[in-house]
Every structure is written in structure tokens, then in C-alpha cells.
Amino acid sequence: MDAVLSILIGIGLSAACGFRVFVPLLIMSLASRASVGHLELAPSFAWIGSTPALIAFSVATVLEIAGYYIPWVDNLLDAAATPTAIVAGILVTASAAGDMSSFLRWSLAIVAGGGTAAVFQGITATARQISSFTTGGMGNPVVATVEAGGSAILSVLAITVPVVAVVIVFGLLFLGARRLFFRRPARAT
Questions:
Q1: Are the C-beta atoms of 17 and 114 separated by less than 8 Å?
Q2: Cβ atoms within 10 A of the Cβ of 65, count?
Q3: Is the distance from CB of 93 to CB of 109 less than 8 angstroms?
Q4: Which of 124, 129, 147, 184 is the most exposed place for a label (fewest CB within 10 A)?
Q5: Is the pTM for the entire model greater than 0.85?
């Protein structure tokens, strides 16, 4: 059962990486340092809970969130965030997977973690492009706020109630796929 929960935690955190790259890493660092032991990291990933990592994730989170509130810079950040989110998704999934063989850990991390982060990063980048095009960038701060909040909430849920987080992830994927693939054609006037 622990392996399943570890995978669920990894999927939830990797989806959160698709919204914001460093927010899930910061929350993981904080959770691993909590005295109650909210999150147990795989032994080779204990560095995520170290003080230098906590400081680095804090600074990176503040800079990332602030950058997304600057019009047009946010679109440039999306170009860098896409590969970074995939790597972060792989990292958080591998670090959450506790007692697994290395092959299984990294296979799951690459496929489930990297794939989930890539899908959610693609969704957010598309939403930002649509917002930039339709509002001239003026609606992007709203998109940035929703993304940062979604990343934080999903990260906390992934660590505290991973089943709920994964249900939300699959719900968002279902809604996105339904909207993309099952659109009704526009009526002719």
C-alpha cells in the first residue's frame, strides 16, 4: 500500500510542477522537514529537505511567481518552464517513491511524473497564449494567480491526501480532454 501512495503522491506533485516548477519542490522540502514527518523522501533524495535546498527553492519560487506577473516575460518563462517542469516532475515522483527498485522508480518517474508534468505544463502554456492573444497580456496575471494557487493547493493535497489529489488531476485531465476533443462545431448564423 505504501508503494501505491508513493506513486499517487508523485503524480499529484508532478501535476503541480506543470503549474509552477518550484512550488511543489518548496512544499516537499517543508513537508520533509516537519517534525510530524508528513513526507518521507527516498534516501537518495534527502537533500530536498536540507536547509540549502529549502533556501534555494524559496528564492526560486518567489522569482518564478514574480516573473509570471510581468506581461510577455511570462510567455518567455513558459518556454524555459516546459523542459524544467518535466525534469521537476520526474524528480518529485522519483523522490516520493520510497522502497522500490531503481528501475521501477525511474521508469515510473519518467513515464508518470514527467508525462503528467508535461501535460499540465502544456495546458498552462496554452492557456497563457490564449490569454495573451485575447487580452493583450492583461489577463495573464489572473492566469498566473490561478496557476500558482493551483500548484500550492495540489502540492499540499498530494502530500496530505494523495488520493484526493490524483482524483483532481484525473478530473482536470478529463475536463481538458473533453473540451479539446468533444467541442461542438460553431453554428452558422
A1: no
A2: 18
A3: yes
A4: 184
A5: yes
